[in-house]
Amino acid sequence: MATRNRISRSSRTGNYWKKLPDNEFIDKWRMYGPTEMSRRTGMSLRSLYSRRRVIEMRTGQRIEPPIPNPGELPVGPTQAPGRINTEVRNGFVLIGSDAHYWPGDRTLMHKAFLYFCKELKPKIVVMNGDVIDAPTVSRYDSGWEKIPQLADEIEHAKDMLSEIEKATFKTPRYWPLGNHDARFEYRIAAKAPEYAKIHGIHLKDHFPNWIPTMSLWINEQIIVKHRLKGGIHAIRNNTLYGGKTIVTAHLHAARVHPFTDYNGTRWGVDNGCMANVYAPQFNYLEDNPRDWREGLCVLKIVDGRLLEPSLVLRWDDKSVQFRGDIIRV
Q: How confident is the model at residue 140 (pLDDT cuts 50, 70, 90)?
């Protein structure tokens, strides 16, 4: 009888927390954090994280847990500024990056991204940085070349990302900041610091349907961020020194590197480039050969464990290759 009463109270408590208005849920999350909320409510961490993701998508704000006292910090903090933690038990994660969206250009890999959003129905979608190119606010001189205005780039990026939003509906969409994305506000910060808190001066203000972050941590074992180490051994060094599977972009390499030690096998991944590698954005390379590949990354997670990451790669002007198949997009 006592057990039935306990279950009944737990059920009532869980229902109470599920019905909390968004602002109260945010206050509780910031007060207690996910683990303590789970203990108090009997709700699973997955349910709590799902509710938080829905609120973040709806409000466009990050909801962070409380910062522990210094004496309570674990070795290697589990929460850092600019980091978002999430969970995927079963399903796909689709990751693209380096679209460098250029007005008038709708690339093969953008079409492929839409195709796999519809086919795989991913649990999470990530644009892993450098959605815009922003040459007009670069510190590098563009010479005599005609380049688009920043406003035109942002409008085109909105159009392209809105296509992804329609293809993914309510799927959480994350955007780790890329170095080209950061040009937008770095210029403002350098020239007009007094505008710091005004809406619109951050790039994220213009894309409210995407959750901005510096890094996305999935199941505390997979890290998605725009860049980490540099050089030709970057993806190996990322997972070697990071100690986790790490998916980066920035180098446009589209490569997967396994690394195995006493902890098992983890993966270093470069998810490639969504822009055409010979697009006008890259004319500064003077038609030199480039070790770049157009691609996307597909992660499949089964019972919380990551299978070997897969890449979607360009095949020709209208098709991509994926897991041994050629797919027209």
A: low
